[in-house]
């Protein structure tokens, strides 16, 4: 089964890249029907693929308090540069630009009230596809306590944004993830992603999530994840607040929720244009929450 998943994931990647190549050669009829005024604002997809920080900014006529590079509009979806990479550890915003590829490493450390510590790692590859799609593939490990057995899982995620950036308030994006566990029932995780700019330097994200098991106890989790971030140094360092609240029940105990709420600071540092470091130490608020849950994320764009 593991080999089948890996083969399927590789096939999806190949298909996605083939679509991207074909789309670069054949004009989308819907794009051809756009008005000339819209086309004059649209940035053409370059013959040579840009990485996100290499895009020339799109000229947008508007009154701005100050000009920040990370708020320049880039790419075929006219999105701000800050959305081209992950801004928060638990909260997603929009999609990455078409043609982007990035590798990411994740570590999550959860310190429970009984003194034990749980560990989760993720290795991710991320693809920006045409027509406002994004594909992410993960390899995951979990360990409950330092001496317990390490379990392995695989995850595949697909996102779709309803419109180019700024066309719909909140820039709504659909997210669907399938999680295949080694010794537990598989899970599905649909999300609605929202996000945007409050004022220059201030950015926000909000995710509404429903995660449920496809077998076993059919555990269901309903959650909201949110973050606010301030660009202290343009395209280099951001500081904010991030939190996650969720309620969990099972098929034999519907409505009797275990409530989990963590909240804490969020940091982003970009030592190089292609490298992103996100760090968020969050602390438990409710009695069912762990003492702390710390996220670390490292990304490198190719």
Which CATH top level class fits?
Mainly Beta
- Please write the string of helix (H) and strand (E) elements: HHHEEEEEEEEEEEEEE
- What's the name of the CATH homologous superfamily? monomeric porin ompg
Mean pLDDT: 86
Instruction: Look up the CATH topology.
Output: Porin
Radius of gyration equals: 20 Å
Strand order of the largest sheet: 3-4-5-6-7-8-9-10-11-12-13-14
* Total number of strands: 14
Q: Can you name the CATH architecture?
A: Beta Barrel
End-to-end gap: 30 Å
Q: Helical segment tally? A: 3
The low-confidence runs, each spanning 5 or more residues with pLDDT under 50, are: 1-46
Major sheet: size, sense and barrel closure?
12 strands, antiparallel, barrel
Fraction of residues in H or I helices? 10-25%
Computed structural class: mainly beta
Shape: globular
Strand content: over 45%
- The structural domain count equals 1
Structure at a glance:
The chain is mainly beta. The chain has 3 helices and 14 strands. It has a 12-stranded antiparallel beta barrel. It has a two-stranded antiparallel sheet with strand order 1-2.
Kindly describe this structure:
With 302 residues, this protein is mainly beta. It has one domain: monomeric porin ompg (Porin, Beta Barrel), CATH 2.40.160.40. It is 11% helix and 48% strand. Strand 1 and strand 2 form a beta hairpin. The longest helix has 24 residues. The protein is globular and about 55 Å long. The chain starts with a helix and ends with a strand. The relative contact order is 0.14. The N terminus is likely disordered.
